[in-house]
Amino acid sequence: MAQRVAVGDAAGGSERPSRVRVAVRLRPCMEKQGEKAEGACVRGLGPQSLEIINWRNSTETLQYQFDVFYGEQTTQPEVFMTSVKPILPHLLNGQNASVFAYGPTGAGKTHTMLGTQKQPGVIPRAVREVFNLVRAQEKEGGDWDHTIGMSYLEIYNEKVLDLLSPNTQDLPIREDKDRNILIPGLTHTSLSSFSDFHTHFIPASLNRTTASTKLNHRSSRSHAILLIKVEKSQRAPPHRQLTGKLYLVDLAGSEDNRRTGNQGLRLKESGAINLSLFTLSKVVDSLNSGVGRVPYRDSKLTRLLQDSLGGSAHSVMIANIAPEQAYYFDTFNALNFAAKSKLIVNKPFVRETVSSTVSGKRGRQEQGHEAATQPQKKRFKEKQPEEQEESSEPAQPHSPAGSSVLSRLLALEKMMMGSPERERLNLLKTVAQSRKEIQKLKEKQKELEKKAQACNPFPADQKEQGQDVVIHSKKGVEALKDTGMFRTNLPPLYRKPSTAAKPKRQQAVVSPLQVSVVQPIQQCAVVFKPSLCPSMKQKQNPQVVEGKENLVKELSVPESDWESHLDTSVLVKSKEKILQILNSGTLKDLKTLQLIGDKKAKLIMGWREVHGQFSQVEDLQKIEGITVKRFSSFIKANILSTIVK
Ligand SMILES: Nc1ncnc2c1ncn2[C@@H]1O[C@H](COP(=O)(O)OP(=O)(O)OP(=O)(O)O)[C@@H](O)[C@H]1O
């Protein structure tokens, strides 16, 4: 018989949420001798804070606060002792724990997780500690048997590959009816000692490296997940069983293809990495905001980490960053990602089964083990999980423990404010107020859109018919501007507070030392070169907008040739404007661009999240699905659209 026992229940209290602890580790500067030393772009301020130069204004810095900040001099034992060791005893209580290293390529993830022979990292230290804990408990006596086992896998190009039994087979991820994540076919090996772990782990790691050589830097291009499972079985009745799992994750580094010049296979790999890291960041966002469905299923990585993020595990994220100027945007993005991860609340629970017979020691090579477990309401069937194909039903919002948006928010409130009742009421009030305001704004927007349409001499469906250029009436745009709904193109950190009050988000604190407000882009004065555009006059008439004689709905100039009809300065300004939207626009802003729908807008945001800013509009061609031809249509449509606004 299996029962799920919440930590709080076991202790006789309520379920106690466990927050994901976020540590940031700055690696030492690696600038080689002879290279121009530009100085670090980031520096520590204290044991929990650091600052980075503001890229918009180099006389300013942005300050971040985390659970821990590890400076360049921090040693491997310090990282382990302060961030990892404290969560390991939970494994012996039937709870899950996870440690994952995030950060750009070359920032020190593998150093932190694996380390070197002289400076072993988190993985060897954690496994040794698990053995120590088990031994200590066995020495104390009691009627428990312990078994420790491992699985080791990597996610490469969205494929789940077994590193203990390497072959090219992509292992399926399944979920049983109790929402446990399973990987049928994944090798699980029992370990009798720490040296036994080494015996299996080292060749398995080499599998990863060997494949990497063959496939061109594969190791840094896959996410490696080591699972250590501790099972406790009671010898005497009632034969209780406790299972705790530890996930040690070395994430692939995000790469900026502009810097690496990735092409072909590497570009494809990079796409897969970026997709999973982007999804990871969306999962974090969604858990933090408590709004909408958590997109765990959108990538294999998040599906597997489901239990480590917003689930049942005690989690630690170590964000690795590099100090060199060349890493600036990678560092900036990693810090923002880490800041988001700070407020995820996990709900640890004890996994306990009670069986009528002692299960006995496990075989050396067990197949079909879970890679992750979920909170359950029903019996936990260790050996014969009732598997289901990956169900097509939508994911449960938020934690698999079924915690509602409200309970998640409340947990945050409890944790942060210490006065849950008052905060709960305030929160509910804010949400209700915000909803009302949003509704009002929506109505106003509809009204204004109607007005704008009335001023637009062209039928609305022309845009849908794929016409490249659509004229927006100036009046309509001005009206929208008045409401504050017209896009301001402000970058995320400095976005001017919208007049539409949003539901209060419990975001991690990212507090700039000084806040500079970037001015909205001025609408550029647009003048076609009349001399270069003789055909325009004849085409203008039916489509002239009042007061804008040189604006046309459509230019019937040859595809290749249209740019030459525009004044160069106009062209440059328009491109700048488009670039600014690409770099700092919200999803909504991006969708206002011609030929950019929801999917493309998300891809753009994902790219931005991972690589930072686009340096030129042409970089858009690096986004999946934006071919040269599409880009050419995009640029034509948007430049002309910008001009006619
Ligand atoms: N804290 C540190 N102290 C000393 N050297 C470090 C530290 N962190 C990283 N390094 C060194 O920096 C280099 C890059 O680190 P590492 O390979 O761990 O990066 P990574 O983030 O795992 O990169 P990738 O994503 O490509 O695998 C290595 O030579 C490593 O030894």
TrEMBL record:
Its main location: cytoplasm. Residues 356-403 are annotated as: Disordered. It is found in: Cytoplasm, Cytoskeleton; Nucleus. SMART domains: KISc. CDD domains: KISc_KID_like. It comes from the Eukaryota. The keyword Transport does not apply. One of its GO terms (molecular function) is DNA binding. Keywords: ATP-binding, Coiled coil, Cytoplasm, Cytoskeleton, DNA-binding, Microtubule, Motor protein, Nucleotide-binding, Nucleus, Ubl conjugation. Belongs to the TRAFAC class myosin-kinesin ATPase superfamily. Kinesin family. This is Kinesin-like protein. It comes from Conger conger (Conger eel).
